[in-house]
Amino acid sequence: MMSGDTEVIDRAGLDRLVDVLRDNGYRVIGPQLRDSAIVLDELDSGTQLPGGWGVETAPGRYRVYRRADAAVFAHSAGPGSWKQFLLPPRRKVWETGPDLNPRPAEQVPVRMAFLGVRGCDLAAISVLGRVLGGGAHPDPAYVGPSGTRAAGPADTAVPGAEPRDDRGLPGADQTPFIVAVNCTEPGGVCFCASMGTGPGVAPGYDLALTERLDADGHRFLVDIGSEVGARILAQVTTRPADATEVSEARAAVSAAAGRMGRTMPDTDIRTLVRDSRESPHWQDVASRCLACANCTMVCPTCFCTSTEDVTDLTGEHAERWERWASCFELDFSYQHGGSVRQSGAGRYRQWLSHKLGTWYDQFGSSGCVGCGRCIAWCPAGIDLTAEVARLAELAAGVGDDHG
User: Fold this and answer.
1) Using one digit for the tens of pLDDT, what is the confidence trace for 156-176?
2) Could you tell me the CA-to-CA distances from 355 to 73, 89, 96, 327, 350 in Å, in that order?
3) CA 233, CA 352: separation in Å to the nearest integer?
4) pTM
5) Do the bridges between strand 61-66 and strand 53-58 make them parallel or antiparallel, or are there none, so unpaired?
6) Which among 362, 308, 299, 353 has a CA at the least distance from the CA of 326?
7) Nearest-CA neighbor of 227 among 206, 204, 209?
8) In this predicted model, what pLDDT tens digit does every residue of 173-201 receive, in sequence order?
9) 23, 225, 338, 339: which could form a disulfide with 205 (CB 3.0–4.6 Å)?
């Protein structure tokens, strides 16, 4: 068993995989049903996985429902993304007492394993690695793959090189063990196919699962993507996948690309957004947008943060905290004298223009991975793909903008 092989495990084997990861010291994070949603949280066992649950998604709508089968991964993205484990929503930066000497907050390294990472989210992890883990000034709060290394396959140790962890990665690189999942049932707001991030997962995983549930039983094809993945899987009962199984699994994933609930317009979006800066459509969107920041909070690549200082009642103890922030907040662009973007239209334009346009200039790719979370969790039902399509129509002179 080695990187590049494809094995098969049954449903009990999936539970065993969770146990093996935990036995190897990983904190296993995966999907589970809670509060009427499929959320990401720590798994104590594979029995917590959402077997038999699916989701219905549409603009402004997300509902779980009972499936007629026991499929574990037949659901699209929920409200949470893996970003919350790579960039904490809230963290203490430092604290100080009467001596006024700041003391950095203690950070305890945690070995994490992500189970159930879709193609769109694997792409998002790669994006965050470039944005927060790479460059001359990496974010100290970020825990994950750096911008110079794809998550997954381990490097080969070189004599005399810096110390490396058990994955063969530098000790400072807290790359999570990634068990990805190829999608065979996209959701109603998914458009990863048009963004080039799914439904199949790209390289960057340790193991990749394709769920199959048919007359031959409930099983998972497992593609091995790294040597550490091979070592972990070797502790689970498997059998080699035959050519027919592999072919049918690949076909199921390919077919899912044609069943996306949404699609991004096939145009030069970067240029379209740039040239639409003065479009009247921004006002139309602003008339519907509540500026609630839901879209940025659920987005797996939005990375804006802010800091705030708090003190106790005596004034003898102070702390600085970092928290997620949003460009939809009026005070986010505040400078002496007022906020730069005071209108809702300006703030929505800033978000969409950065996500789909200027992100290329900064980081070399789009900031959107097509997961559709911003569509499902927008209380006003604003559809990113529909707004871009409308900008394209207006740019082509198709009708007036009446929403």
Assistant:
1) 222 232 333 444 333 334 689
2) 28, 20, 37, 11, 8
3) 41
4) 0.89
5) antiparallel
6) 299
7) 206
8) 468 999 999 999 999 999 999 999 999 99
9) 225
